[in-house]
Amino acid sequence: MIISKEKYWKQVRKEKFKDNIFRIYLDETCLQSDRGNDIKLSEQLADEVVREWSIDGKIDSIKNSFFTKFCFSASDCTEKERLTVLDRLVEYGNCDPICYIASEPKKFHLKQEKLYSPLIDWTEKFLSIKLKTGSSLLFIEQPLINSSKIAKYLEDLDNFHLTALHELTKSLGSLFIALALYNNFLSPELAWEIAHVEDNFRIEIWGEVEEETLIKNINLDFFNSLVKILKMI
Predict the structure, then answer these.
(1) Quick check: bond before 105 cis, omega within 30?
(2) N or C: which end of the chain has fewer CB within 10 A?
(3) Which stretch of DSSP H or E encloses residue 229?
(4) Helix (H), strand (E) at residue 13
(5) Where do the H-state alpha helices sit in the chain?
(6) Partners of 35 in the β-ladder
(7) Alpha-carbon distance 73 to 77, whole Å?
C-alpha cells in the first residue's frame, strides 16, 4: 500500500502475471489500489497506467488520473457496491430516455423516431424484453419482467466491464444507448449523437451557448476516454 504523498519511485514498469494479465511495479513495489488490492490489467490498460504513474506529481493527483482512477474503482468494488451499481443500471433501464419520443415539434419528433426506433428494436431483441414508449414527460411504467432480464445480463459482467458500462451509462444518460455501444451495435459517434439529440435540436433552433459548449466538449473528452477503455478490458 502506498502511504507517501510524494512520488518516491524512479521507475514504473508492467510485468506479466499470467496470460495477457499484467501487474504494475513502482521500482520493486507492486502497485496496489486504495484498499490494498493488486492491480491486474490487460496489456493496453497496463501501458496507460504505467504512463500515468511515470508523470511527475503528487500521488493523490496521479490516483485521480483517468485510467488509474478507473482501475482502482473496478479493483476495489465490493459486493455491496456492485449490487448498488446493478440497481442503478436497472433503474436507468426502467426510465430510459429512448422510450420518450416527443410528439412535437414535428421535425424533432421525426429526428427522435429515426434515431430511437432502431435502438428500441435492438434492445428488445438483445435483452428479450418489451419496451413501452410514449410522448408524455410523465413516467412510463415498464413491464416488471424487464428489470429481472436486465439484471440477469448485467450480473454476468465482471467488475471492470460493469464499471465501464456504468460510467458509459452516466455519460450518455441512457443504459440502452450504452449497451448498444458496448455490444458494437452503435458506433461511438452515433451513440453520442443519439444521447444528445435534444441538445443538438435546440442548438439548431437557438444557436450555441459558449459555456454549454465548453462543458459538452469536456464531457465528450471523458466519453471518448471511456470508449478507449472498452477496447482495453
Answers:
(1) yes
(2) N
(3) helix 210-230
(4) strand 12-18
(5) 43-54, 59-63, 66-75, 79-94, 106-127, 144-155, 159-172, 175-182, 188-195, 197-206, 210-230
(6) none
(7) 6
Give 206: exposed, middle or buried? Use CB within 10 Å, 0-12, 13-18, 19+: exposed
Domain ranges for the chain: 12-75, 79-230
User: Cα torsion at 103, 106, 109, 110 (round to 10°)?
Assistant: 140
pLDDT attached to residue 209 = 74
One-letter amino acid for residue 66 of the chain: F
- Do residues 59 and 5 make contact, with C-beta atoms less than 8 angstroms apart? yes
Summarised one tens digit per residue, pLDDT across range 105-157 is: 999 999 999 999 999 999 999 999 999 999 877 899 999 999 999 999 999 99
Q: What is the pLDDT of residues 61-111, one digit of tens each?
A: 999 999 999 999 999 999 999 999 999 999 999 999 999 999 889 999 999
pTM of the full predicted structure?
0.92
